[in-house]
């Protein structure tokens, strides 16, 4: 059996495990930092093939939840099952199951677009021949094939985002996490990006889990939405039902009526300091 | 294997692409060779110790490797800042492989930089005592490089931003360099300095390198090799442990 076939077979088997319709199942998830509870007994589930929006004000615990789902943080309590595996018990199985586009850029600016993808492919053990083929396919999909040998530092914010999406899909994940993927992008690029994501969702059947602050975006893209506030789930339903339940005409109104209109104080955490730091160092312009 | 290789390759690509860094970091060793080598050379000769350039050159090579390697390790802080670290941490590979690949890459880069300085000191008049022992020189250069890349990784795993950088330089890197016997012979210094050197990994690195290049050694090359190897293993362990504890 060739390496490529066996890789596909492994993939197929992993998908079989996850045949039960809930691809992400979260029960009573808790994360505490010292005496601060960032995520407070959160439960939700995401169906296979669904586009799931995870919305909430700043500091609601969205990114913390994503970090726990993606093995970057250990939960303080509760259960997570992702593609049939528990991130705390089987981190590598879980890691193979998802691709992620982080809130902040995570490309190596000193490498070219192709090199960034090559690097990713090797880390995810995608066999060489398949890697080559997928890289070409994905770079064409995100319309960066012509720029494949250019350094990422010469890319605009939108191009970097597209490259990150391509990278997140390279190892054929069953779930794609998008943490505020359209932050700071112009409307054209945002539209484009969502079109890709929807196309992928329909053609490949990849499950999409995303966060955003743009409500109209969530309204258009998501099959179902969970709204979190202060580390708790405030509501969980389809955009239509959320609007109906709150008697609102837009999702934004529904969101505000569920989470209140007070502005949230979020203490600057490490990441925010780093974002400022990045501006100081004049690095990744976005 | 693929993971270690690609981590190694990334470090190498980043190095060969930043010409400014390669040539920029030759400035410091050049300054040391000119100012100290030519400045103290005559006095050293008068004191009956022989050719100072032969004594100083291994020290300057070691210094170059020390700085390049520490920076390579500390680059993790930048990877964390610019997000690339996350990309490697969510990949289905062990942190150990990531750390080893990165360390070998950083060490290779530092050794290459050391070799560049070796060529320069040849131009400055260094005459190796035995050309045949140059492979040992290469071995010591690589060991110094691995040790300090691992040390940089360990530091970068606990220090989260560049604010701590002056502390690292002034209280760790500089003392290690100046107290290592890179610039003066350890044979005739006060007892206190000699004892300090016993606990300084770079002292063995410099001494071994000097044994291989200039044919003079304070501890003996075998002791140098064993001591430096043990220090290196210890710090690879510490670096791996701390790297595995990084939370983003």
Short note summarizing the structure:
The complex is a heterodimer of chains A (286) and B (248). Chain A is 42% helix and 21% strand. Chain A is of the alpha/beta class and 286 residues long.
Architecture overview:
The complex is a heterodimer of chains A (286) and B (248). With 286 residues, chain A is an alpha/beta fold. In chain A, 42% of the residues lie in helices and 21% in strands. In chain A, the strands form two sheets. Chain A has a six-stranded mixed sheet, sandwiched between helices. In chain A, strand 6, helix 7 and strand 7 form a beta-alpha-beta unit. Chain A is globular. The C terminus of chain A is likely disordered. Chain B is globular and about 60 Å long. The model of chain B has no long low-confidence stretch (mean pLDDT 93). Chain B has one domain. Classes of the chains: A alpha/beta (286), B mainly alpha (248). Chains A and B meet through helix 3, helix 4 and helix 11 of A and helix 1 and helix 5 of B.
Salient structural properties:
heterodimer; A: 286 residues; alpha/beta; Rossmann fold; disordered C terminus; B: 248 residues; globular
Question: What is the element layout, followed by pairings?
Answer:
The complex is a heterodimer of chains A (286) and B (248).
Chain A: H1 3-17, E1 22-33, E2 36-47, E3 51-55, H2 62-69, E4 77-82, H3 91-97, E5 98-101, H4 113-123, H5 128-141, H6 157-169, E6 175-179, H7 187-203, E7 207-211, H8 215-221, E8 224-229, E9 232-237, H9 239-246, H10 251-259, H11 270-281
Parallel strand pairs in A: 3-7, 3-8, 5-6, 6-7
Antiparallel strand pairs in A: 1-2, 1-4, 8-9
Helix pairs in contact in A: 4-5, 5-6, 9-10
Chain B: H1 2-17, H2 19-24, H3 27-46, H4 52-81, H5 84-89, H6 95-123, H7 134-158, H8 165-178, H9 191-198, H10 201-214, H11 221-244
